[in-house]
Amino acid sequence: IPAHRLTLGHSLGSGEFGLVLEGHVKDGSLCGQTRVAVKMHEGEQSRAERWQRFEREVRVMLHAGTHQNVLACLGYSKAPNGFPMAILELAPGGNLQTFLRECRGHVTSRPGQAAYAAGSWARAGRGSGLSGQDFALIARGVAHGMAHLTRQRLVHGDVATRNILIGQSLAQCKVSDFGLARLEDEPEHIHAQSRARVPFRWYPPEYFSSRSYTRAGDVWAYGVLLWELVSFG
User: Fold this and answer.
1) What is the SS3 assignment for 95?
2) CB–CB of 67/145 below 8 Å?
3) What superkingdom heads the lineage (predicted)?
4) Of 109, 125, 148, 222, which is the most exposed, with the fewest CB atoms less than 10 Å away?
């Protein structure tokens, strides 16, 4: 995506691998534009290493394809300082961990509210509480996203509520942050440097003896995510 079509806005958050900003991409019309999230890859690595990690993450996201429960990569661009930027689908609900923590103490037996309007669903959730059906919708959405990645022969490597984003409704939870992801048949040694700071609390016991992370590790991490879900993050 050419840089002149991209306008950067306020910060949406940051992580180990970079800063995430809200942005707008202009289309071919005079006033048409799309709201997006822009992930800027910055850190301690050299510029060549940044590009390598950026290219790997974008390649994995593009390989994942399109699914309502997986965050889509729309393209890439370059920042004025030359650093790479990934242009991602914008999930207006923010990350699941923050939402759960904001909803602590608010549980109800009412029917689920999967159709929260974007921008107001979080307030509705805090005010009226989350039901068992809401928890099931979230868990099912994440499971569908992970099942899609499995069909695409991808290992995510960092399944946790902080890496699940919420779209237009609770049913549209999207698996995101592919910084540790890889193709299943890709050698793990390529990711040795990335795994210098792995999320150990979400990793299965066998990882600590074999130092090997497979799809089975994603299943274990999903179980930890379910615990995060019922304990409100």
Assistant:
1) strand
2) yes
3) Eukaryota
4) 109
Structure confidence by residue, pLDDT tens digits, 58-107: 999 999 999 999 999 999 888 877 778 899 999 999 999 999 998 887 66
User: Hunting for tokens 């805090």 — which residue is that?
Assistant: 126
Q: What is the CB neighbour count within 10 angstroms for residue 119?
A: 10
- Residue at 18: amino acid letter: G
Please say if 185 is a catalytic residue: no
Q: How confident is the model over 5-28, as pLDDT tens digits?
A: 899 999 988 766 678 899 999 886
Q: Is 39 annotated as a binding residue?
A: yes
**Token reading at 175:** 């698996």
Bridge partner list, 137 = none
> What topology is assigned to 3-89 in CATH?
Phosphorylase Kinase; domain 1 (3.30.200)
DSSP helix/strand/coil, 203: coil
CB atoms within 10 A of CB 52: 15
In the chain, the DSSP E strands lie at 6-15, 18-26, 33-41, 73-78, 84-89, 154-155, 164-166, 173-175, 182-183
CATH 1.10.510.10 fits 94-231, yes or no: yes
DSSP H/E element including 150: helix 132-151
> Which residue intervals of the chain bear CATH 3.30.200.20?
3-89
List the end-to-end C-alpha distance of the chain, in Å, as a whole number.
36
